[in-house]
Amino acid sequence: MRISIVGLGLIGGSFAIDLRKAGLADALLGVETSGEHARRALEMRLVDRVVSLPEAMRDSDALLLATPVDAIAAMLPTVLDAARPDQTVIDLGSAKLRIVEPARGHVNRARYVAAHPMAGTENAGPDAALEGLFRGKTVLLCDLDDSAPDACKTALEIFHAVGMKFEFMASDQHDRHAAYVSHLSHVAAYALSLAVQTEEKAGYAVPRLAGGGFASTVRLAKSSPEMWVPIFRHNREQVLKSIEAFSERLQAFKACLDAEDYKKLEALIRDANQIRDLL
Amino acid sequence: MRISIVGLGLIGGSFAIDLRKAGLADALLGVETSGEHARRALEMRLVDRVVSLPEAMRDSDALLLATPVDAIAAMLPTVLDAARPDQTVIDLGSAKLRIVEPARGHVNRARYVAAHPMAGTENAGPDAALEGLFRGKTVLLCDLDDSAPDACKTALEIFHAVGMKFEFMASDQHDRHAAYVSHLSHVAAYALSLAVQTEEKAGYAVPRLAGGGFASTVRLAKSSPEMWVPIFRHNREQVLKSIEAFSERLQAFKACLDAEDYKKLEALIRDANQIRDLL
Questions:
Q1: In this structure, what CATH number is given to the domain that contains residue B26?
Q2: Which of these ranges, A74-83, A174-183, A248-257, B247-256, has the smallest mean pLDDT?
Q3: Most-buried pick from A259, B180, B207, B264 (CB within 10 A)?
Q4: What is the ipTM, given to two decimal places?
């Protein structure tokens, strides 16, 4: 299979490494607007060649769109305009509805598969690409009814090759879900980082002294705005709801401390502990 | 050196493993109110014997108090009453002021060293004890002016033996600091767990699908109320302040999304990213 990867950052680069290793790709092409990233991707031999998007469309059986979600949304209609009946276009965006909706009713909609591989790190660019990043993780496949069976098969082959498990859901369900398990975690980490840095500036050498717990909780605050502003923009309503739900729980916690109601505080913590059974 | 460890859980048990390995302890005694934990600690050979607190006082050169902070505060005056001039008592609590203050002016105050090893996991009990838990981590030593030089030396030997780096500060400064880098991280994780679980109960199989980012951010929500309610209680004022600072940043984030001010959202994220330079 000839595979093109559009966007050679953390996600695209990691797919390149594992697809090559799995032997699924006879040819691996890259599309990358950053000259620096393109150069690094070639140095690292992530892809065989870096080409333009029209060349990638011409010379590949499957395309993986691995750019920030706003760029995916902008390019998808054009990509589908040019899609051949034997070609599969897969997007890997972290918010789905505003990518999927404009493609609804497109004459080539069936060539397109909407996917969200639930894996990543806080780092960006080709140098962040990791072997085995997706192994054992889940890919959420959305609205498969709207994709052609052979396009679904190609997508499943690709995700299987990198070791992923499959889950299926509608795009709107995906976005609500992703708001809670992924986007909200980033918001919480960003807010924690900002709060701690304010203290730091006030003369407390806070982060230098921190243990592993703080590092773990704040890790996602290192994630880039280039990737995350578009995600928050695309999934704005659901993210706002999740922040509200989170704020309510935070206020409930604060209210217990305010009122020195330690019985209730203990009950809240015991409820929170149940995440053990769910992860 | 004959060392007694009071409380054979995650922290006490991990000290037992590494102090034995370092060859610093000729004899290692344990004090443990839970019969089950005492039995496990002996099975695991964490300590040579489990004894009563008075026996531990009689038969050891140094005592490490590694129970929840309320139990430390309750036992410290009695322990100091019995402390010999050649004996060192070290507490390992995560909040200091309400442990240190009642000991101020005690005739044997100089035998006591207040310490907070900044290391741990979300697990509890002797089975959670980990070899190397403290290696490369920082121990905050508080109010050392109030401790006798030979007691300080003993404490430094013990923390050095398990591979820790030292930082020195006043108890009140410690508590403000710890609220931000440790206690607030736990509050945020508990609130995140509660918010996500509510969604889960509403029929969204949220956590099952989560990636590594969520797992990392929510990890501390598994931490037990037995340890954490007393910490929040002891450091209530500072934790309340840190929750307020965190809530403000969260609301600032939400306000950007509400107003669709993505330039400002990007600026907030860039500020949050600076945690990279501090960790």
A1: 3.40.50.720
A2: A174-183
A3: B180
A4: 0.92
